[in-house]
Amino acid sequence: MVRNEIQEIRMKEYFIDAAREILKGEGLKSISVRNIAERAGYSYATLYNYFNDVKDLIFECVKDFQKECDQFVEAGSKNSRRGLPRIKSITKAYINYFVQYPGIFELFFIESTNDFVNKKTDLQVITGSLNRLCEPELIYCVENEVLTKHSADKMINQLLYSVVGLLTLYINRRQPKTYKEFMANVETELTNIINK
Amino acid sequence: MVRNEIQEIRMKEYFIDAAREILKGEGLKSISVRNIAERAGYSYATLYNYFNDVKDLIFECVKDFQKECDQFVEAGSKNSRRGLPRIKSITKAYINYFVQYPGIFELFFIESTNDFVNKKTDLQVITGSLNRLCEPELIYCVENEVLTKHSADKMINQLLYSVVGLLTLYINRRQPKTYKEFMANVETELTNIINK
DNA sequence: TTCATTATATTAACACTGTTAATAAATATA
DNA sequence: TATATTTATTAACAGTGTTAATATAATGAA
């Protein structure tokens, strides 16, 4: 019962890495316990020696993607001017991360009825991630009297709704059809929300 | 091979009605061919004598729900003053229809990776439905010079994005937690978009 | 009415899904 | 080396959509 910690972590990672590859590539529709295990080089039942169920495994991926997304956004926004311009950059980078990995958007915002990711706290963490990324800049804006506390709250709400709407329609429903059109719509929406 | 038309339509409706009941009640997660057939009083394989596959059946439901949604919106907005106020009423009614039947929202805007509803034209019809409902009022606004053609296009786009974002987060992710909070957010968003 | 043909409904089966229990294999301990 | 423990695998269950083969019901002609 007292399993070697290092070995256990290593084993877990084999499965997590396999699952991440599938999610990034084919997306949620292609993931299955047998699929993950095969890619990890083990039998499907072995997975259950390291995870309670597939939800637990998938949520480990969610946490990793979350970190990756944070880094992607950081890299894509650090050179922007602080305040409103950086909020715009952060949001654009956030959107582009999910455009690059539609399967991860599915996992973060769409999936619910199927059997992955259902812990309440997990959901709060996911839906709050744009908020968390923008928070330093929102505080900066309030401190410099560019925004009131109330208008900052309102703005981050509007941003999240528009981002989720834009991405849901583009990723899930192919509307608009091209990336160029999509990004033009993104620009319009963000300008309207951020620059009033 | 030359089946009685009336009987065929009747049979189709038995399955469609059964599927609609399930979708309205438990939602997409609970639907299955065996489930539908049992509720219709037939064997699961009989369904395939009347539909090519379950996607075809589900899309018949989509069309029905579409009509029902139109009527619901019509009833909830016909007494509003024409122009911008009615656009707001239409959008609110549209939102409330999906709040009442979250499973239908799933079917209309979320589902894609799973195996229901995938014909391209069908998707266009669904995502264009708010646009279609608002169109007479948008034209009215342009004619009365309340809006320019360009600002009308922009408005309907923003409306759709916000509506889908609001509903996705509320239905799929329980954010915000209460209906009251949700409707307050709806009001804020719609006011911001429609009344500038 | 009886028989043959056609149309419709049903059961059995296939390939998948997540998960669990029983078994096989590998490792560690004495 | 022999025993005990840990880890991995196969077999199985209940579920999914779908298809082929079979059973039942309805219809036609004699």
Helix content of chain A: over 70%
Largest sheet of chain A: none
The beta-strand count of chain A equals 0
What is the CATH fold-level name of the largest domain in chain A? Tetracycline Repressor, domain 2
Oligomer: homodimer
What is the CATH-assigned architecture of the largest domain in chain A?
A: Orthogonal Bundle
* Greatest contact between two chains: A-B, 34 and 34 residues
- CATH class of the largest domain in chain A, please? Mainly Alpha
Number of helical segments of chain A? 9
SS strand fraction of chain A: under 5%
Stretches with pLDDT under 50, minimum 5 residues of chain A: none
Instruction: Let me know the CATH homologous superfamily of the largest domain in chain A.
Output: Tetracycline Repressor, domain 2
Large-scale geometry of chain A: elongated
The H/E string of chain A reads: HHHHHHHHH
Termini gap of chain A:
60 Å
Secondary-structure-derived class of chain A = mainly alpha
Q: What do you see in this structure?
A:
The structure is a homodimer of 196-residue chains. With 196 residues, chain A is an all-alpha fold. In chain A, 73% of the residues lie in helices and 0% in strands. Chain A is built from 9 helices and no strands. The structure holds a DNA duplex (30 and 30 nucleotides).
Secondary structure topology:
The structure is a homodimer of 196-residue chains.
Chain A: H1 5-25, H2 33-40, H3 54-77, H4 84-100, H5 102-110, H6 120-127, H7 129-143, H8 149-173, H9 179-194
Helix pairs in contact in A: 1-2, 1-3, 3-4, 4-5, 4-7, 4-8, 4-9, 5-8, 7-8, 8-9
Chain A binds a DNA duplex (30 and 30 nucleotides) through residues 1-3, 11, 32-34, 42-46, 48-49, 53-54, 115.
